[in-house]
Write a structure and sequence with these properties.
Keywords: Cell membrane, Glycosyltransferase, Membrane, Transferase. The protein is an alpha/beta fold. 39% of the residues lie in helices and 18% in strands. A nine-stranded mixed beta sheet has the order 1-4-3-2-5-8-7-9-6, with helices on both faces. α1 packs across α5 and α7 packs parallel to α12.
Amino acid sequence: MQPLADLAPPIAAQPRYSAVVAIPARDEAERIGACLDALADAAAQAGPVAVLLLADRCADATVEIATAARARVPYALVVVRRVLVGSALRNAGDAGGARRAAMDAGAALLAPDGVLMTTDADTRVAPDWIARNRAAIAAGADAAAGRVTYLRADDRALPQAARRRERLERIYARLLAELRARARPDPHDPWPRHDMASGASLALTLDAYRRIGGLPRVPVGEDRALVDALRAAGARVRHCPRIRVTTSGRLDGRASAGAAATRRLRAEGGDPFCGPDLPALDDALACLAGVRMRAQARLCASALPGEIERAGALVRMLRLRSAGACRGDNPVPARSGLR
């Protein structure tokens, strides 16, 4: 068990809510205030909601700042402190374990038909974030994944070469998402959509969370593992581009192999390859065709312009095939826009 020392009334004594936002936090004193204030704006549009903040072995003022925020936010804010010792520290003392503990505690606050959401302590949700997550679930989805962008100030701090690479990756990711959506339409996840699965913006029904046994026990990549587990269980997952959050683009993240570590490596000129969520186009097409491949070579970042051109041509062809349904789509970026 992972002992949680409540700094609010015990969870068992709390009322049950129709929606709960679970947030893991580790030494986030600089950012937690903005996170909670953004959720206040979102809660004002969405009705009764609770926020469960799990302070994971914090050594700074995260807990004090969050506790003080109770006086100004329009939602029920439950703050718990996570304490790990001995084997628990070895087995669950990671970012994935912290999110699982936060989501498990949040689930305990939910009504049987409730919606469990999660975001990050360095993230600011859009004012309609809670409402749009609830709307996606009400429309028939079992889970909803939101679109994540970085704070502009953090983007500007990156070297120009790193910023250009990230821009190319975003273009390629959008093309792959559209290619998949048009080549193999999913009535529960239609175009427009994206392919992100980030812990900064996830929502699911309590039933779906319990059906898969909670958040998968992995040290990193727990967000992608959650979506994969939901799909394997037959859940309907909506990747809604209108569910939006803005997150820190910092280079000193909490997960040893998370997004911050990847950004730092790229800022230093390392990591010439894209992540596994951006396969080479041939590999992506093989997957769409149902061809099993023993191993996929990681896509080299220098190949992105060419892959974008090829993917763009395929997307344009698919758009033409369904022109009546695709009026108003944004044009595929031309080569001149990649320089």
